[in-house]
Design goal:
Length: 326
């Protein structure tokens, strides 16, 4: 990082080690000179003019190699938080104008910002049947029931082409890609509607209830389609914390359920839950939070167990999206 990009009494330069828990603006390095001129114009009594596109972030952790950020792409429609890792070598400088009450601006390299805004991220869901082992132990043939389940999944999937469906054993994995920037396409509510349809299908075909685990976030297959299918190979194109954390939450939920049984059928990662368009009164009423250990960072995180019926009943209608910084 170069702390001499902004010399002069008008600017306060920040060292990265002091940014822990700061709220910042992230901006492309191409706007540095325009930013300087904008500040100079304001200091001289001129009209303030916005410069370029800015991203709102909060600094979660600073290490020798990276800064962990929470990226907030939208504020008007939902509280959506996306964890992002920013390598130190992609940072130009961090600065704030003394005379103006604004967040510090973190200028980053163009290539990194463009890749971050254009990459595909994901919503993941794991739907698992309850009681399959007991059903198998009875020795009752269920081949016809499984065929009915498979045909039903085909029918549901045909109506949601934006979501990938992978069924295996007694589980269904859902994956939906979404993007940032001016093509913001995040829609976590749709997979919950799919969950209710699959829940009904399992009940009708196998006579079994199901539960669902849902997460959202970055995916290392960020430039590929949702799935790869060759002649006899299926790849879900998924690698990263949100995908791995499905199993972490599932394991924690099974353990916690044994200690405190309940009737809820959804287990939602905290960031996924917070991003839903839920009315505030219902959000505040959800008190059933349990911890789990994130698969990659090994940090402590939280999930809520809630009723799908209550969640869907308390969803607010979508409003016109206003992207932060646009």
């Amino acid at each position: 990082m170069d702390n001499h990009v902004f010399d002069g009494a008008a600017f306060e330069n920040y060292t990265l080690d002091k940014l822990q828990n700061y709220e910042l603006l992230v901006q492309d390095e191409i706007y540095i000179e325009d930013y300087k001129q904008s500040i100079a114009d304001r200091d001289n009594g001129g009209e303030w003019k916005p410069v370029g596109y800015v991203c709102f972030v909060a600094v979660k952790r600073v290490t020798l190699d990276i800064i962990e950020l929470s990226f907030f792409p939208i504020t008007s429609d939902r509280r959506h938080e996306l964890p992002i890792v920013l390598p130190r070598d992609q940072i130009i400088t961090c600065v704030r104008a003394w005379n103006w009450d604004e967040r510090p601006t973190l200028f980053v390299k163009s290539e990194w910002l463009e890749r971050t805004l254009s990459r595909l991220n994901c919503v993941f869901g794991l739907i698992d049947a309850i009681g399959v082992r007991n059903k198998l132990e009875t020795g009752v043939a269920i081949n016809e029931q499984l065929s009915k389940l498979r045909a039903g999944l085909d029918e549901i999937a045909s109506r949601y082409p934006q979501i990938s469906f992978v069924s295996f054993a007694d589980s269904v994995l859902l994956k939906s890609n979404w993007s940032l920037g001016d093509k913001y396409t995040y829609d976590p509510e749709t997979v919950l509607n799919v969950f209710t349809e699959i829940r009904s299908l399992f009940k009708e075909s196998l006579g079994l209830p199901v539960y669902g685990v849902f997460t959202q976030g970055s995916n290392e297959y960020y430039a590929d389609s949702s799935m790869h299918v060759s002649k006899n190979h299926v790849c879900l194109n998924s690698l990263g914390a949100p995908f791995a954390d499905l199993n972490s939450i599932d394991a924690a939920a099974r353990r916690d359920y044994k200690e405190n049984p309940h009737s809820d059928d959804l287990y939602l990662d905290e960031l996924y839950f917070n991003s839903l368009r839920l009315n505030s009164k219902f959000k505040k009423s959800v008190l059933d939070w349990n911890s789990y250990t994130m698969s990659i960072s090994k940090a402590r995180a939280w999930y809520a167990h809630v009723s799908s019926g209550e969640v869907l009943k308390n969803l607010k209608p979508a409003r016109k999206k206003t992207l932060v910084g646009s």
